[in-house]
Design goal:
alpha+beta; 4-stranded antiparallel β-sheet; 178 residues
Length: 178
Amino acid sequence: MDTWIALLRAVNIGTRRYLMADLRAALTAAGYTDVETHIHTGNVRLTGPETTAEAVERRLEAIFAADRGFPVATFALRPAEVAELAEQCAELSGLHRPEFGHYVSILRSAPSAALIDAIEDLRRPHELLVVRGRAVHLLYDVPYHEAKVSHAALEKLAGEGTNRNARVVLALAAKWAG
C-alpha cells in the first residue's frame, strides 16, 4: 500500500461544494485508509493500492464524480514529491523574495523543454514563472488580482492543473511529508 497526497482542483468554489467530511467518507468507503484532509480546498492524504500517480488520479476522479455528480480533477503526488515542492518554495522565495505572493501550479506531467521555455516566457515585469518538474512557481511582486499571468493563463498554454499558495505547500509538507 502506498501513501499519496492528492490535490483537488476547484472544489468548494461556486456550486462545486465538497465538504471534507463527505470526501473522507467517500474515500474510506472506497477502501482507502489513513484518509486525512487539510483545510477545505481539497488537500487529501490517503493510503491505497495504486502504485502510480496516474492510477490514483483516475480512481479518485471516478470516486468523486460518482459521489458528487461533477468532475473533480485530481493531481496525486508522493509525500517525497511534496517535500521537494516545499524545498523549491523555500529556495525560490528566498532567491526572489516575492512581495505579494508565491503560488505553485501542479500540472498533469512535467512539460517538455519547449513548453518550459514558453511557460517561462509568460513572465512580465514583477511576475516571474519558474518551472521545476510538474510544478510552475508563480512569484508576484504585484497584488495577485493585478497580475497579468495567472493560473488560468498558464492552463491555456500548459493544460489542466491545480494551484496552491506556497504557504499551503509548506504546511502540507510539514504535516504529511515528514
